Amino acid sequence: MILSFTASADDQGPGSSKGGKAMDAAPAGVKLTTLLPEKISVDNSSKKTAITATVKNEGTKASGEIDLLVVGFDGLKVNGVQGCSAIGAKDLPPGSNSGFKCSVGALAAGRSKSYAVDATYDLSKAGKICLPVMSADGKETFWQQGPVPFGTTNPSPNAPATPLLLGTDNKPVAPGGDTLPRTGAGDDVLPLGAAGAALIAAGAAGLYWSQRRPRQPLRG
Questions:
Q1: How far apart are CA 120 and CA 45, in angstroms?
Q2: How confident is the model over 139-169, as pLDDT tens digits?
Q3: Predicted confidence band at 175 (pLDDT cuts at 50, 70, 90)?
Q4: Residue 91: helix, strand or coil by DSSP?
């Protein structure tokens, strides 16, 4: 898969694991985490943005074969992740709008691997991203960051670009009001879908990937 990345990620802040939580126990000596930039910038004309998604092994032993998933929600849509495969529309978790699976392989102790994420952000909505780290067979989820929001409480629709901060709920500019209405807690609890891939409510850190793996897209 060859993807074109046109948005610049040069102004992204340092990486942060905000909104992340360890899930299933990793093998002895393995400590997997993910990082997202603390700041991204959305072009107000094209809605394009770029995000760097990083998976890291902070342990003392190699991880074994793992996968990283990159999933978009609400106003944030993931259009491509360099070197990764799209998750089919029927296999996306309910509530998400896009997703890609990255086959990381075995990550050595102390090493990390980063992926360029090409995305668009509809600033009239809130937007979230989710990074689960799973075993290659899909039976275990070792870590999951998010769904964590990117947003701003000070929209700048007349500026060339809008900076968004990780872990900040977006305050959209919408016709007839300054904020996007909240529709209740029920929207944050996503039931398991028929494909066996979904997110479930799991405490204050947000929604976490179920241990079931989405079916792989059919190859044409």
A1: 11
A2: 999 999 999 999 999 888 889 999 999 999 9
A3: low
A4: helix
